[in-house]
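Long-time lurker, finally posting.

We've been working with FAD-dependent oxidoreductase (Microbispora amethystogenes) and I want a structural starting point before designing mutants. I don't trust myself to interpret raw outputs, so I'm hoping someone here can both generate the structure tokens and explain anything notable. Sequence follows.
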Amino acid sequence: MTGHAIVIGGGIGGLAAAVALRRIGWRVDVLERVPAFGEVGAGLSQSPNAMRALAELGLADQAEAASMPTWATHAMRLPSGRHLMRAPAGGRPPLRAFRRAALHRLLLQALPEDVVHTGVEVTGLAQDSGKVTVTCTTGRREADLVVGADGIHSLTRRLLWPHAPAPRFLGYTAWLGLAGTSIPVSGSITLGRGRYFLIHPVAPSQVYWALGTAADRPGVRFDDEPEQVRRRVSGWHDPIPALLEATPSEQVRHIDIHELPDLPAYTSGRIALLGDAAHAMSPDRGQGAGQSIEDAVVLAAALAAGASVPAALDAYDARRRPRTQAVARGARQAGHQMIDAGPISHALAVLALRVTPSTLWARLAPRALGPLWDWTPTALHPSLT
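Top reply, 14 upvotes:
Generated this for you. Predicted structure of FAD-dependent oxidoreductase:
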């Protein structure tokens, strides 16, 4: 089955959907409301499941070239610098770390220039048994399928389910930064009580970092955001001070962490939700972008195999909703353990990590994360890949 699809939203999930749909022979238009793409976010890591999804999009080599290996999940420290867990010597790190803009760019470059239309804002949707009509600032467009990849505050979602719960604040906030530095840096996580500091190298001379910490309410901002980061990690081990010193003020972003309560469905008729529009989650499993790329591949595979668009979307919903909602729950629990742990819980967690040999952890972690990391995509249409 082929046809014409309109993808609402030109972020990572929307572009991945466009690439996937084109690989199975669909004609695609992406409508993005911003007039031009800029730097959104700072960095992110992709685990093996997401890298397999990128490979299914035909982007394995490009993704490898645009990222750096990182052992962050296997290298944990205390603010004093004491190692709780060391990365194993040799072997292949399980994660690839990207500058977010680099991952977005490689997806954008996989599409012809006439596919993505910027500066176009969608204002309404209507559908019947045969088509979807999209009303936007440039007029009306018709398609066989509409994919809502328009983020956590998705208009598509609000139009489909106007009474669905709004995104909810998870009780913590984060600062993200990109440091330009020639200092050799390995991926790591430093665990303080009520806060953590994540480090990922994303290029030979560039490092992504993130500080997560508890917050009573969202929306609190400061005149000097970098100073707030320095104050919260004052006295923490090297290379944290050097990374903060090497981060230009304009490369520091402050965000509040929200998630989307479970939806009853990701599809309605000929309209599907994808990525944060369907299942926005906390970053504590490093799965937000990865799950949206998975969504894109599964959606395309369902359409390639389905007898009709509605039937294919039913299959997509059945496959994606249980997995993504489970991943979101796991991310929320992981964030709670790091951000909300009291003194006793924090001390017990540190003790457990301290007494676990790093070699044993290197064997246990992949097993524990197996249900998440071992996911393998269905191959897209073999005649078009």
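Before you design anything, note these points.
The domain at 4-167+259-380 is CATH 3.50.50.60 (FAD/NAD(P)-binding domain).
The longest strand covers residues 168-180.
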